[in-house]
């Protein structure tokens, strides 16, 4: 099977390496950043243009920032889709607006190209060790054919419905994560203002109903004042913009999403866009005049 992968950033690079490690040796790669491509060529991939990827590959994958980049790379004037063979498949692993996923799939269908939207959760560490969680939208038979390929990068690969369902699931994931981080920051701030050590609050409640993967991962970062990304505030703003846009399109109420988005936007405006999203705590620290855990 000849595979193309475009977008070799924080996530795409280790994912491409895991495809090679699993024994898929015909991997054609591209990225705007040449040093990313060089690293993959050293690992056994072939550097290729959009045209070469489209003409050669049975399946083309992307791991790009957002909908505009995916549309440009695939559907632009010299986009990959204009060179792809009838019967080939496109798998977009970027986190984009599900409305855009459906638009891209409809255009590709006219060329007899099937599409899966297959965003991931897990971040760079899980991209490196090949244990990402994939949320996939698309036809069942296409999913069945390419599940093994996704499993070279992920520990969990779940089909959530037709095209767009993968990115809808990712938006749900991003709403829950942002609101959960915010709740932890708000609760720790309350505890500290009331004279109780947030570290002890964390230890006391993490095994109960309020405990969560988010609290375990982000609570200690807040208490230590560690804002090293992880997952950046600016990327979370992008995801929640997509969530708000999708919600407005389908008529879903999202008041919690819009209010946490305002906090993220405030952080962006105050030079924290490149911080980890656990830096939502900084908003509460600024308002309350404390430093959580310190
Ligand atoms: P990144 O910015 O590190 O990588 C994006 C790559 O795309 C860059 O290398 C860039 O050069 C390349 N690129 C951009 N436009 C291009 C174009 N026109 N042609 C070719 N290459 C192009 O981003 P990332 O962190 O790898 O994230 C990629 C996607 O994965 C995003 O949608 C993000 O939301 C999602 N995601 C990220 C994480 C994370 O923790 N970083 C976790 C889950 C999902």
Name its key features:
alpha/beta, six-stranded parallel β-sheet, 13 helices, 9 strands, 13% strand, elongated, binds nicotinamide-adenine-dinucleotide
Question: What is the SS-derived class?
Answer: alpha/beta
What percent of residues adopt helix (DSSP H or I)? 40-55%
Strand content: 5-15%
- Kindly report the average pLDDT value: 97
Strand and helix order: EHEHEHEHEHEEHEHEHHHHHH
How are strands sequenced across the largest beta sheet?
A: 3-2-1-4-5-6
List the total number of helices: 13
Low-confidence stretches: none
Any idea what the shape is? Answer: elongated
Tally of extended strands?
Answer: 9
Identify every distinct bound molecule in the structure, by name, code or SMILES: nicotinamide-adenine-dinucleotide
**First-to-last CA distance:** 54 Å
The biggest beta sheet reads: 6 strands, parallel
Radius of gyration: 20 Å
Per-chain topology:
Blueprint: E1 3-6, H1 12-21, E2 27-30, H2 34-42, E3 46-47, H3 50-56, E4 59-62, H4 67-75, E5 89-92, H5 98-109, E6 114-117, E7 120-121, H6 123-129, E8 132-137, H7 140-151, E9 154-161, H8 165-193, H9 198-205, H10 213-224, H11 233-250, H12 255-269, H13 280-288
Helix pairs in contact: 1-6, 4-5, 8-10, 8-11, 8-13, 11-12
Bound molecules: nicotinamide-adenine-dinucleotide.
Description:
By secondary structure, this protein is α/β, with parallel strands linked by helices. It is 53% helix and 13% strand. It is built from 13 helices and nine strands. Strands 3-2-1-4-5-6 form a six-stranded parallel β-sheet, sandwiched between helices. The longest helix has 29 residues, at 165-193. The protein is elongated, with a radius of gyration of 20 Å. Nicotinamide-adenine-dinucleotide binds next to helix 4, strand 7 and helix 6.
């Amino acid at each position: 099977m000849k595979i193309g992968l475009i977008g070799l950033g924080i996530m795409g690079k280790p994912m491409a390496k895991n495809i090679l490690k699993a024994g898929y040796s015909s991997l054609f790669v591209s990225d705007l950043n040449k040093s990313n491509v060089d690293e993959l060529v050293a690992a056994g991939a072939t550097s290729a243009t959009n045209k070469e990827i489209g003409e050669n590959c049975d399946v083309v994958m992307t791991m790009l920032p957002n909908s505009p980049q995916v549309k440009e790379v695939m559907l632009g004037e010299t986009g990959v889709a204009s060179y792809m063979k009838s019967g080939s498949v496109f798998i977009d692993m970027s986190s984009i607006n599900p409305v855009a996923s459906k638009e891209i799939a409809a255009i590709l269908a006219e060329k007899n190209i099937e599409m899966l939207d297959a965003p991931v959760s897990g971040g760079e560490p899980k991209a490196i060790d090949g244990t990402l969680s994939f949320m996939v939208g698309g036809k069942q038979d296409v999913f069945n054919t390419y599940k093994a390929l996704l499993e070279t990068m992920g520990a969990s690969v779940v089909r959530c419905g037709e095209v767009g369902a993968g990115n809808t699931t990712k938006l749900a994931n991003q709403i829950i994560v942002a609101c959960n981080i915010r709740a932890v920051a708000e609760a720790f701030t309350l505890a500290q203002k009331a004279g109780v050590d947030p570290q002890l609050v964390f230890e006391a409640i993490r095994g109960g109903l309020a405990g969560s993967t988010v609290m375990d991962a982000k609570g200690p970062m807040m208490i230590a004042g560690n804002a090293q990304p992880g997952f950046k505030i600016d990327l979370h703003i992008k995801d929640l913009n997509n969530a708000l846009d999708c919600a407005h399109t389908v008529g879903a109420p999202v008041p919690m999403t819009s209010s946490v988005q305002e906090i993220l936007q405030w952080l962006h405006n105050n030079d924290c866009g490149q911080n980890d999203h656990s830096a939502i705590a900084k908003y509460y620290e600024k308002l309350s005049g404390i430093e959580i855990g310190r």
